[in-house]
Hints:
This protein is α+β, with helices and mostly antiparallel strands. The protein is built from 3 helices and 6 strands; from the N terminus they run βαβαββββα. Strands 1-2-6-3 form a 4-stranded antiparallel β-sheet. A two-stranded antiparallel ribbon has the order 4-5. The longest helix has 12 residues, at about 35-50. The protein starts with 7 loop residues before the first strand and ends with a helix.
Amino acid sequence: xxxxxxxxxxxxxxxxxxxxxxxxxxxxxxxxxxxxxxxxxxxxxxxxxxxxxxxxxxxxxxxxxxxxxxxxxxxxxxxxxxxxxxxxxxxxxxxx
Length: 96
C-alpha cells in the first residue's frame, strides 16, 4: 500500500472554495495524480478524523506559458473536492 500522507499535496484555497466550505461543507485538495477515490477517502478519514460522504476528482491540464520566444507548460495536476459529513470540519480551512 502507498503512503497515505503522500497522497495530499496541499489544500487548494480560493474564494469559491471558501464559500463551498461554509455553505456545502466541502474542502478541496491538490492530490497525487495516481491516487483513486477509495484510497483518498481512507487517507482523509484517518489523517483528519472526519467522515467523508463523497469525493469528486478532476484532472487539471497545465497552462501554456510563454517568456519571449520560449514556450513551456505548467505541470498537470489533480484536484479532489471532498464532501464532509454534517458537523465535521477540517481545522485548516476554519482559519482562512
